[in-house]
Amino acid sequence: MKKQNIKQSLAKLEAIAKWFENERDIDVEEGLAKVKEGAELVKSLKAELKEVENQFEEIKRELVD
Known about the structure:
With 65 residues, the protein is mainly alpha-helical. It is 83% helix and 0% strand.
């Protein structure tokens, strides 16, 4: 999956959630593909957010020293 920024990934997750909310008759294969895509986005977001958290911690340590 192409690396996206946090804002883009969150927007895509929101679009997937809205798709499920708006669909009356969900196609199983399409739904499964969207669930897989959403899971990949969540995995990517967790990694990105951990990286941002580490950067904040590094800045915090630099300010204390």
